[in-house]
Amino acid sequence: MRWLELFKLEFLEHLIQLWAQALIHFAERYAEEARLQAEMESEQTESLSILLLCDRRLPFKTINHITKTAALAGFPNFQLAVLKR
Q: Over the stretch 38-83, which tens digit does the pLDDT of each residue have?
């Protein structure tokens, strides 16, 4: 009877180890996928740009507010164009 209890205990320990290995594997895989997704999103954001076509009469304070808001929204690259007229 004692050998049967030892066998059950060893079997359960082995099962727990397998479950732990599977959980570690899936956690590593999930972390890698999340890292790749974040990398792709950052590459897409870097290529985005905003072109501001402004009139000379537009106050700098307004332009500054627009550019800061765009940067906070994930559009750090922008270009300014001013109409001469």
A: 888 776 656 678 888 888 788 888 888 988 888 888 788 888 887 7
28: tokens are: 């590593």
Q: Say what the pTM is.
A: 0.43
**Beta pairing partners, 79:** 51
Backbone angle region of 78, left / alpha / beta, with phi > 0 → left and psi within -120 to 50 → alpha: beta
C-alpha dihedral, 20 to 23 to 28 to 29, nearest 10°: 140
Q: Write phi, then psi, for 83 (nearest 5 degrees).
A: -80, 130
Are the beta carbons of 50 and 75 closer than 8 angstroms? yes
**Residue 77 and residue 70: Cα distance in Å, rounded?**
9
